[in-house]
Automatic annotation (TrEMBL):
PANTHER family: ATP/GTP-BINDING PROTEIN-RELATED (PTHR42708), GLIDING MOTILITY PROTEIN MGLA (PTHR42708:SF1). SUPFAM superfamilies: P-loop containing nucleoside triphosphate hydrolases. One of its GO terms (molecular function) is ATP binding. Belongs to the GPN-loop GTPase family. It holds the Pfam family ATP_bind_1. The lineage of its organism: Bacteria, Bacillati, Actinomycetota, Actinomycetes, Kitasatosporales. This is ATP-binding protein. Keywords: ATP-binding, GTP-binding, Hydrolase, Nucleotide-binding.
Amino acid sequence: MVYGHSDPGRPHIVEPVTLKILVAGGFGAGKTTLVGSVSEIKPLRTEELLTEAGRPVDDIAGVESKTTTTVAMDFGRITLREDLVLYLFGTPGQDRFWFLWDELATGALGAVVLADTRRLGDCFAAIDYFERRDIAFTVAVNCFEGADRYPEDAVRDALDLDPGIPVVLCDARERESVKHVLISVVEHAMLASTAGR
Protein backbone atom coordinates (compact mmCIF):
# COMPACT_ATOMS: atom_id res chain seq x y z
CA MET A 1 0.00 0.00 0.00
CA VAL A 2 1.07 3.50 -0.76
CA TYR A 3 -0.04 6.42 1.38
CA GLY A 4 -1.07 9.64 -0.26
CA HIS A 5 -1.77 13.06 1.22
CA SER A 6 -4.61 14.93 -0.48
CA ASP A 7 -5.56 16.52 2.83
CA PRO A 8 -2.42 17.47 4.81
CA GLY A 9 -4.11 16.45 8.05
CA ARG A 10 -5.52 13.14 6.87
CA PRO A 11 -3.51 10.63 4.87
CA HIS A 12 -5.51 8.33 2.63
CA ILE A 13 -4.59 4.97 1.23
CA VAL A 14 -3.94 4.77 -2.49
CA GLU A 15 -4.34 1.30 -3.99
CA PRO A 16 -1.76 1.18 -6.75
CA VAL A 17 -2.42 -0.39 -10.12
CA THR A 18 0.07 -3.19 -10.62
CA LEU A 19 1.52 -4.26 -13.95
CA LYS A 20 3.38 -7.51 -14.49
CA ILE A 21 6.13 -8.12 -17.03
CA LEU A 22 7.89 -11.44 -17.56
CA VAL A 23 11.58 -11.68 -18.41
CA ALA A 24 12.29 -14.86 -20.34
CA GLY A 25 14.97 -16.27 -22.60
CA GLY A 26 17.59 -18.94 -22.82
CA PHE A 27 19.90 -20.27 -20.14
CA GLY A 28 22.57 -17.69 -19.31
CA ALA A 29 21.01 -14.85 -21.34
CA GLY A 30 21.11 -12.42 -18.38
CA LYS A 31 17.56 -12.51 -17.02
CA THR A 32 18.59 -12.39 -13.35
CA THR A 33 21.00 -9.54 -14.10
CA LEU A 34 18.30 -7.58 -15.95
CA VAL A 35 15.78 -7.85 -13.10
CA GLY A 36 18.43 -6.91 -10.53
CA SER A 37 19.74 -3.91 -12.43
CA VAL A 38 16.41 -2.10 -12.51
CA SER A 39 14.57 -3.27 -9.37
CA GLU A 40 14.13 -0.69 -6.60
CA ILE A 41 14.11 -3.46 -4.01
CA LYS A 42 16.68 -6.16 -3.43
CA PRO A 43 15.40 -8.70 -5.96
CA LEU A 44 14.15 -12.07 -4.85
CA ARG A 45 16.38 -14.66 -6.49
CA THR A 46 16.08 -18.43 -6.52
CA GLU A 47 19.59 -19.19 -7.72
CA GLU A 48 21.34 -22.46 -7.07
CA LEU A 49 24.86 -23.56 -7.92
CA LEU A 50 25.33 -25.53 -11.11
CA THR A 51 26.38 -29.04 -10.20
CA GLU A 52 28.10 -31.94 -11.88
CA ALA A 53 24.75 -33.77 -11.85
CA GLY A 54 23.23 -31.03 -14.02
CA ARG A 55 26.02 -31.09 -16.59
CA PRO A 56 24.20 -33.52 -18.95
CA VAL A 57 21.09 -31.28 -19.08
CA ASP A 58 22.55 -27.75 -18.74
CA ASP A 59 24.37 -26.79 -21.92
CA ILE A 60 26.90 -24.15 -20.85
CA ALA A 61 28.57 -23.82 -24.26
CA GLY A 62 29.14 -20.10 -24.73
CA VAL A 63 28.48 -19.33 -21.06
CA GLU A 64 31.21 -21.43 -19.47
CA SER A 65 31.79 -18.94 -16.64
CA LYS A 66 28.19 -19.31 -15.41
CA THR A 67 28.14 -20.91 -11.94
CA THR A 68 24.50 -20.51 -10.83
CA THR A 69 21.06 -20.95 -12.35
CA THR A 70 17.53 -19.75 -11.56
CA VAL A 71 15.38 -22.66 -10.40
CA ALA A 72 12.04 -20.91 -9.82
CA MET A 73 11.98 -17.17 -10.59
CA ASP A 74 13.50 -13.77 -10.04
CA PHE A 75 11.28 -10.98 -8.73
CA GLY A 76 11.78 -7.22 -8.78
CA ARG A 77 9.65 -4.13 -8.35
CA ILE A 78 9.62 -0.61 -9.79
CA THR A 79 7.30 2.10 -8.46
CA LEU A 80 6.53 4.28 -11.46
CA ARG A 81 4.36 6.69 -9.48
CA GLU A 82 2.27 6.65 -6.33
CA ASP A 83 -0.54 4.71 -7.99
CA LEU A 84 1.39 2.57 -10.48
CA VAL A 85 3.79 -0.30 -9.70
CA LEU A 86 5.58 -2.61 -12.12
CA TYR A 87 6.47 -6.15 -11.07
CA LEU A 88 9.16 -8.06 -12.93
CA PHE A 89 9.21 -11.85 -12.95
CA GLY A 90 12.27 -13.55 -14.39
CA THR A 91 11.64 -17.08 -15.62
CA PRO A 92 14.08 -19.98 -15.41
CA GLY A 93 15.82 -20.67 -18.72
CA GLN A 94 16.16 -24.45 -18.78
CA ASP A 95 13.56 -26.74 -20.33
CA ARG A 96 13.03 -28.69 -17.11
CA PHE A 97 11.65 -25.59 -15.36
CA TRP A 98 9.22 -24.49 -18.06
CA PHE A 99 6.25 -25.90 -16.12
CA LEU A 100 6.55 -22.73 -13.98
CA TRP A 101 5.97 -20.42 -16.92
CA ASP A 102 2.17 -20.81 -17.03
CA GLU A 103 1.85 -19.65 -13.42
CA LEU A 104 4.25 -16.77 -13.93
CA ALA A 105 2.53 -15.68 -17.17
CA THR A 106 -0.93 -15.38 -15.63
CA GLY A 107 -1.99 -11.73 -15.75
CA ALA A 108 1.15 -10.50 -17.52
CA LEU A 109 0.90 -7.26 -19.48
CA GLY A 110 3.81 -8.34 -21.67
CA ALA A 111 7.23 -9.92 -21.74
CA VAL A 112 10.89 -9.40 -22.53
CA VAL A 113 12.56 -12.18 -24.47
CA LEU A 114 16.23 -11.72 -23.66
CA ALA A 115 18.47 -12.97 -26.45
CA ASP A 116 22.18 -13.77 -26.52
CA THR A 117 23.66 -13.70 -30.04
CA ARG A 118 26.15 -16.38 -29.02
CA ARG A 119 23.20 -18.73 -28.45
CA LEU A 120 20.38 -17.11 -30.42
CA GLY A 121 18.45 -20.34 -30.90
CA ASP A 122 17.90 -20.56 -27.14
CA CYS A 123 15.23 -17.87 -27.24
CA PHE A 124 12.99 -19.60 -29.84
CA ALA A 125 11.06 -21.47 -27.13
CA ALA A 126 10.23 -18.21 -25.30
CA ILE A 127 9.16 -16.50 -28.53
CA ASP A 128 6.94 -19.46 -29.41
CA TYR A 129 5.46 -19.49 -25.89
CA PHE A 130 4.40 -15.83 -26.02
CA GLU A 131 3.18 -15.98 -29.62
CA ARG A 132 0.96 -19.00 -28.87
CA ARG A 133 -0.56 -17.25 -25.85
CA ASP A 134 -0.92 -13.88 -27.60
CA ILE A 135 1.23 -12.11 -24.99
CA ALA A 136 2.93 -8.98 -26.35
CA PHE A 137 6.72 -9.16 -26.15
CA THR A 138 9.89 -7.32 -27.07
CA VAL A 139 13.08 -9.12 -28.03
CA ALA A 140 16.00 -7.53 -26.17
CA VAL A 141 19.45 -8.52 -27.42
CA ASN A 142 21.82 -8.53 -24.46
CA CYS A 143 25.11 -7.20 -25.86
CA PHE A 144 27.69 -9.27 -24.01
CA GLU A 145 31.31 -8.18 -24.10
CA GLY A 146 33.17 -10.05 -26.82
CA ALA A 147 29.98 -11.27 -28.54
CA ASP A 148 29.36 -10.40 -32.17
CA ARG A 149 27.04 -7.42 -32.64
CA TYR A 150 24.29 -7.55 -35.23
CA PRO A 151 21.81 -4.89 -36.35
CA GLU A 152 18.26 -5.22 -35.08
CA ASP A 153 16.99 -6.19 -38.55
CA ALA A 154 19.48 -9.06 -38.77
CA VAL A 155 18.27 -10.39 -35.41
CA ARG A 156 14.64 -10.01 -36.54
CA ASP A 157 15.37 -12.01 -39.69
CA ALA A 158 17.31 -14.71 -37.81
CA LEU A 159 14.42 -15.16 -35.37
CA ASP A 160 11.77 -14.91 -38.12
CA LEU A 161 9.84 -12.27 -36.16
CA ASP A 162 6.75 -10.48 -37.38
CA PRO A 163 7.54 -6.88 -38.42
CA GLY A 164 5.57 -5.39 -35.51
CA ILE A 165 7.57 -7.10 -32.76
CA PRO A 166 10.14 -4.70 -31.31
CA VAL A 167 13.81 -5.69 -31.26
CA VAL A 168 16.14 -3.59 -29.10
CA LEU A 169 19.79 -3.84 -28.19
CA CYS A 170 20.57 -3.59 -24.48
CA ASP A 171 23.04 -4.15 -21.70
CA ALA A 172 21.23 -6.05 -18.93
CA ARG A 173 23.69 -4.63 -16.37
CA GLU A 174 22.74 -1.01 -17.09
CA ARG A 175 19.62 0.44 -15.47
CA GLU A 176 18.95 3.01 -18.21
CA SER A 177 19.31 0.38 -20.93
CA VAL A 178 16.85 -1.92 -19.15
CA LYS A 179 14.39 0.95 -18.66
CA HIS A 180 14.40 1.44 -22.45
CA VAL A 181 13.57 -2.27 -22.89
CA LEU A 182 10.68 -2.10 -20.40
CA ILE A 183 9.26 1.01 -22.06
CA SER A 184 9.34 -0.87 -25.36
CA VAL A 185 7.38 -3.77 -23.84
CA VAL A 186 4.72 -1.50 -22.33
CA GLU A 187 4.32 0.53 -25.53
CA HIS A 188 4.07 -2.63 -27.64
CA ALA A 189 1.53 -4.18 -25.25
CA MET A 190 -0.58 -1.01 -25.36
CA LEU A 191 -0.52 -0.97 -29.16
CA ALA A 192 -1.41 -4.67 -29.32
CA SER A 193 -4.27 -4.13 -26.89
CA THR A 194 -5.63 -1.20 -28.90
CA ALA A 195 -5.36 -3.14 -32.16
CA GLY A 196 -7.18 -6.11 -30.61
CA ARG A 197 -10.25 -4.08 -29.66
